[in-house]
Amino acid sequence: MIIFKTYFKIIKKLSLPLSIYIVVFLALSIVFSYIGNSNNADTFTQSKTRVAFINEGEPSALIQGLKDYLGGHSTYVDIENRTDKLQDALFFRDAEYILRIPEGFTKNFMTGKTVTVDKTVVSGSVSSIYTDILINKYFNTARLYVNNSKEISQEELVGQIKKDLELETEVILKSAGKNTAHTSAIVYFYNYMPYILINIIILGVSSIMLVFNDIRLRRRNLCSPVSNISVNSQILLGNIVFSVSCWAMLVILSLLLYRQDMFNLNSVYFCINSLVLTITILSMSFLIGVLIKSRNAQSGISNVVSLGMCFLTGVFVPQEMLSENVLAIAKFLPTYWYIRANKAIGALTNFNMENIGPVVSYMLIELGFAVALISVTLVLSKRKQLKGT
Amino acid sequence: MIVGVKNLVKRYGDLVALDHLSFNVKEGEIFGLLGPNGSGKTTAINCILSLLNYDKGEIELFDKPMAPDAYDIKRDIGVIMQDVAVFDELTVYENIDYFCSLYVRDREKRRGLVEEALDFVGLKDFRKFYPKKLSGGLLRRLNIACGIAHKPRLIILDEPTVAVDPQSRNNILDGIKRLNEDGATIIYTSHYMEEVEQLCSRIVIMDKGRVIASGSKEELKGMIKLGEKISVEIFGLSSVHINQIKNLPNVSSVEYIDKTLSIKYNKGKNNLTTLLDFFREHDISFGRIYSELPTLNDVFLEITGKELRD
Question: Mean of the pLDDT values across residues A360-376?
Fold first, then answer.
């Protein structure tokens, strides 16, 4: 196993550039994770509309009931009942909804006549629609009681309305589970992982290939009693051990960063998906190792491949923000399918075959890329060897 | 017989690199392959080592047919290529250890062998140096150490002194002699006739992929008519005298250029005495006199009509 051992002696010499990549990645992934977290909420707090309430009619229990009910969902603002003041309040968003109860409203309502309230709202305001719903809800409920019980007093009516409207449906957010924010950070970490994996593995594997593919050393090895198959197998084994070690190191890093949030099935699938991508990147690095002839070319190709693939396929920019044309090209790159798989894994709550199916198929596509790249590499390598003899 | 090459033919398209090449190398000798650049020396070595496929012929090493998978044969061969083949990422010690470990698995035994090799090439003080920090001469020595550390029975050196300073060259040549004295058979290829002449007990001269002459250096020199060359510094020499010198016994050719008289003699005796007698009789004053015996270059020149370094 001398060649295998020598492999890691050479890799040791690359420890400085490799560790720089890892430190940069670590810093960026932490930053990206937190930026990502801040955009994701896992709690719900109802926003309150600022309402100016103007009652031009006589005070009544019905109107007071409306005011109380609306007050639970809105914030009342005190504005002088002058057109210019009210317009200013709307313009400067001091009030989003001006509700005006016309004169005789309660009397007309209680006698079953058709009534309307006046409203002035900020154009296109979502909160005004929400306030409309609340007002309609109040008066529709009241209308129901008035129509069916002619003798009902306003106090009784308001009591019934209050009782009815207090009923609320409890909403539990189940789709993303209770660790939504953490899962999102993990998705960011694993989405960003291809960039560092591509750089580290291409740097390591192609450096080794560059050394062992040197015609002088290759011929010198061929003169020895170690078979060519043994030499190639040891180099292959070294490449696999190196790539899997890089992957394992990044997985351990994610375990350290996200600790107990990593102990779930989603994280297991994230790890499997990144391992599959590691295999694809390894085969890509083999190809690059066969093609390049100098260290300058190596760093150039490494940057072009890593940055190109990451920008085109949604590693840096979410796929939703990429144009259709870019995505059409991205489909021919393995990281596109890796990101698709990560997205699907992040959304998984139920791990049945139906839900896992797309994830597995994305991973198989990634493996397909690996097989294709290895085949091309073997053909090129064979042609290169024949040229050498 | 350590190496047997019979009717070896290697073609690159229309170019015949080796044209029915045949020679044998006996155990314990330093065998020289001499020829100008492009004469087929390296191609022959590559075929012997099974690094190149050949079109026709037979190659036997240690009386066994050589093949790419003849690992038992390869175990006894040490190779020092024309181009230095070492890992830039490994130190001097690690490089020698790597190449030695391709042949010797036992770590303890290997440690001793690597130390011996370091000592042999005089790189003990450079063991922790990386190849890029070594001078050209030291790098060549490292290349040799990598090839000989496992103590092979047959050592093949392909132009090991190209672009090496005279001091390192002498060091390398002395080392090769010592390896031979320790029992190794050496195949040495070079286009430097002085080295081959100084080192090799038997020489094959190649040109255009063919053997044009072979034998010991004395045998090779015996094949040609040239006996010796005498050069004399003379400040003034008339054409009459030059013509008279041409008629002296054994004289083959005479040239008088830049106040130097160069005379080539066919084989014969007392040439210098006869020439000095002529100068005395004709009252010709002269400066320094040089007498040279024929070199391998003269052999090559007489056989092919061109210089070895052409």
Answer: 94
Residue A219 at interface with chain B, using a CB cutoff of 8 Å:
yes
> In Å, how far is B35's CA from the nearest CA of chain A?
23
| Structure tokens belonging to residue B57 | 């012929």
For chain B, say whether A217 makes contact (Cβ under 8 Å).
Answer: yes
pLDDT over 90, % of chain A: 26
| Average pLDDT for B235-259 | 90
Count the alpha carbons within 13 Å of B217 in the hemisphere toward its beta carbon.
Answer: 19
Per the structure block, which two tokens stand in for A348?
């998984």
In this prediction, the answer to ipTM > 0.95 reads no
Q: Which of B115, B83, B116, B87 is nearest to B99 (CA)?
A: B87
What does the alpha-carbon distance between residue A65 and residue A51 come to, in Å, rounded to a whole number?
15
Would you say residue B260 has pLDDT above 90?
Answer: yes
Chain B residue closest in CA terms to A9 = B90
Portion 71-90 of B in contact with A at CB < 8 A: 71-72, 74-75, 77, 79, 81, 83-90
SS (H, E, C) A84-108: HHHHHHHHCCCCCEEEEECCCHHHH
Question: Cβ(B149)–Cβ(B141) under 8 Å?
Answer: no
Residues of chain A in contact with residue B84, where contact means CB-CB under 8 angstroms, are: 216
Residue A222 identity (one-letter amino acid)? L
- Coil, strand or helix at B171: helix
Residue-range domain boundaries for chain A:
2-41+179-388, 49-166
Residue B218 identity: E
Structural domains in chain B, sorted by start: 3-221 (3.40.50.300), 225-293 (3.30.70.100)
SS3 state of residue B10: strand
List chain B residues with CB under 8 Å of A219.
51, 81, 85
Would you call A265 an interface residue with chain B, using a CB distance cutoff of 8 Å? no
- Helix (H/G/I), strand (E/B), else coil: A57: coil
Give residue A178's pLDDT band: very low, low, confident or very high (50, 70, 90).
Answer: very low
Return d(Cα A123, Cα A27) in angstroms, integer. 45
User: In this complex, is the C-beta atom of A1 within 8 Å of any C-beta atom belonging to chain B?
Assistant: no
pLDDT in tens, B162-203: 877 888 888 888 989 999 999 999 999 988 888 888 899 999
Q: Of residues B296 and B282, which shows the higher confidence score?
A: B282
Closest by Cα among A378, A204, A331, A201 to A274: A201
- Among the partner-chain residues A2, A222, A227, the one whose CB lies closest to the CB of B51 is A222
- Show residues of chain A in contact with B75, CB under 8 Å: 225
pLDDT band at A112 (very low <50, low <70, confident <90, very high): confident
- The CATH number that domain A49-166 falls under is 3.40.1710.10
Hey, what are B139's tokens? 């790098």
Query: How far away is chain A from the Cα of B159, in angstroms, using its nearest Cα?
Result: 14
